[in-house]
């Protein structure tokens, strides 16, 4: 039976690339998105054309009722869940902390942190062997920013990813005896549209000379690490982090 995977923020960037790779490796998929309906539909259609079992669910991961409805759709369509990629995330405009607003911090923490907590909670309810599930794997998208701090750009985003690091360790310890592994990937400078949303579309190229490997990374290079952590090939790996950052 195909394993069932929920990828949040699967309409573009790292999430979409992870969906393509996961489908190619035999997973059935729930593709979550928020605004990019056309991109999500296009991805869904292309996966279905290739014979994969997939659904798309529009849900704001920071809104409990919408996350609940998304999980009910997964229950109805697949009747099981084997993995979660907590990938949905946002940046705000580059700024010093001194100029940031409380509203901005609320958005950053609600989507990047509360959203990941909500999706993880619902995944644990379905995958925990203690609660009748068959176990599974959760992969959180952290960031190298959690360690580098993102000064003059997004200290709030870096702090939110620091919270994801702590959640990865704590949840892994909580559910380690319930058949669930929890790990995180920490991308560095990856070519996606998130940088344009932060106000600098060319950010990766500006900073790439500071990367030991002298280049930015591709979404596929991140997806490969995510897929390894989801798979049985990493069966003794939990509460762990993989930097996908060219050494930066
Ligand atoms: P991206 O291209 O901007 O894509 C972000 C995805 O998240 C989109 O599919 C978006 O959906 C979704 N999303 C945003 N807010 C959402 C919400 N409230 N509910 C549901 N979905 C939501 O970003 P990316 O670069 O692929 O980043 C993916 C993850 O990797 C993020 O967690 C990011 O922080 C992390 N990361 C990225 C980099 C990098 O250099 N790119 C580096 C380190 C970490 P819609 O478009 O449908 O709204």
Mind explaining what this structure looks like?
There is one protein chain. With 248 residues, this protein is an alpha/beta fold. The protein has helices spanning 13-24, 37-49, 64-78, 102-127, 145-148, 155-175, 194-197, 203-207, 219-230; strands at residues 4-7, 28-33, 54-58, 83-86, 136-141, 180-187, 241-244. Strands 3-2-1-4-5-6-7 form a seven-stranded parallel beta sheet, sandwiched between helices. Helix 1 (13-24) links the parallel strand 1 (4-7) and strand 2. The protein is globular, with a radius of gyration of 17 Å. 47% of the residues are buried. Residues 8-9, 11-15, 32-36, 60-62, 87-90, 111, 115, 141, 143, 187, 189-190, 192-194, 197 line the site of NADP nicotinamide-adenine-dinucleotide phosphate.
Record keyword descriptors for this entry.
15% strand, binds NADP nicotinamide-adenine-dinucleotide phosphate, 7-stranded parallel beta sheet, single chain, 248 residues, alpha/beta
Write a compact overview of the structure shown.
The protein has helices spanning 13-24, 37-49, 64-78, 102-127, 145-148, 155-175, 194-197, 203-207, 219-230; strands spanning 4-7, 28-33, 54-58, 83-86, 136-141, 180-187, 241-244. With 248 residues, it is of the alpha/beta class. The protein has a 7-stranded parallel beta sheet, with helices on both faces.
Strand content: 5-15%
Bound molecules: NADP nicotinamide-adenine-dinucleotide phosphate
What is the gyration radius calculated from CA atoms? 17 Å
Could you describe the largest sheet, including whether it forms a barrel?
Answer: 7 strands, parallel
Q: Low-confidence segments, ≥5 residues, pLDDT <50?
A: none
Number of helices: 9
Q: Helices and strands, in N-to-C order? A: EHEHEHEHEHHEHHHE
Shape: globular
Query: What order do the strands of the largest sheet run in, or round the barrel if closed?
Result: 3-2-1-4-5-6-7
| Overall SS class | alpha/beta
How many DSSP E strands?
A: 7
Mean pLDDT: 98
- Helical fraction equals 40-55%
Distance between the termini: 39 Å
């Amino acid at each position: 039976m195909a394993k069932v995977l929920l990828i949040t923020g699967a309409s573009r960037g790292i999430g979409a690339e992870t969906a393509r790779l996961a489908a190619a490796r035999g997973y059935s998929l729930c593709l979550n998105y928020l605004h990019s309906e056309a991109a999500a539909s296009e991805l869904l259609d292309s996966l279905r054309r290739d014979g994969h079992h997939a659904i798309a669910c529009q849900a704001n991961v920071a809104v409990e009722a919408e996350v609940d409805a998304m999980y009910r759709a997964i229950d109805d369509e697949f009747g099981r869940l084997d993995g979660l990629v907590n990938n949905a995330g946002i940046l705000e405009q580059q700024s010093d902390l001194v100029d940031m607003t409380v509203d901005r911090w609320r958005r950053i923490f609600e989507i990047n942190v509360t959203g990941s907590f909500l999706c993880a909670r619902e995944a644990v309810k379905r995958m925990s062997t203690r609660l009748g599930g068959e176990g599974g794997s959760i992969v959180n998208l952290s960031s190298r920013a959690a360690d580098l701090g993102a000064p003059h750009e997004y200290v709030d985003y870096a702090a939110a990813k620091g919270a994801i690091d702590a959640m990865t360790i704590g949840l892994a310890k909580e559910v380690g005896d319930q058949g669930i592994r929890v790990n995180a990937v920490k991308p560095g400078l990856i070519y996606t549209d998130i940088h344009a949303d932060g106000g600098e579309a060319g950010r990766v190229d500006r900073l790439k000379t500071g990367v030991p490997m002298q280049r930015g990374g591709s979404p596929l290079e991140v997806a490969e690490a995510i897929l390894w952590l989801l798979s049985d090939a990493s069966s003794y790996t939990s509460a762990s982090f993989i930097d996908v950052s060219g050494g930066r």
